Amino acid sequence: MGLSLRNKFFIPTFLLFFVFFLEQCSNKSEQQSAEKIVGDSASCTKKPVNPNGDSELSVLMRTMLHSSESMKELIKKGDLPKEFPEAFLKIHSAKPTDSETKKASFDGFANNYIDNLHALYNSPKADLTKHYNALITACANCHTDHCPGPLKAINKLKI
Q1: Is the pLDDT of residue 28 over 60?
Q2: Residue 137: is it exposed, middle or buried by C-beta count within 10 angstroms (0-12/13-18/19+)?
Q3: Using an 8 Å Cβ cutoff, are 88 and 111 in contact?
């Protein structure tokens, strides 16, 4: 049995359409993955983690978390990133999700974090672990008082 002229054109056309469709789906998936990676580096996630939306402070804090995770691995090897994370100095001015989050003690905790960050970046290699753990403790102390949700993740950062 031979194929009719109509079927001879239909099958290749259908296959071509199907391959094109699969290619489009693949490209969309790759594009979404790329957007997620870019989003992760800029704001840690594409979708807001906080059900109330992402505030400047929550984005900054997630960036600090990811930076600390990277720093932990470098410090285990005896290294430290060369560039001081100047963006972290915005901790005082970054807007929180809920204005009630920043209690009167927040600025003291923020100053303690910044002091520990400077100490870490000025630390001799022999004291990197000590200063890094002090930085993580500064984070945990603040979150104990202000926003305890991330404490589990913060405590995992210690060396």
Answers
A1: no
A2: middle
A3: no
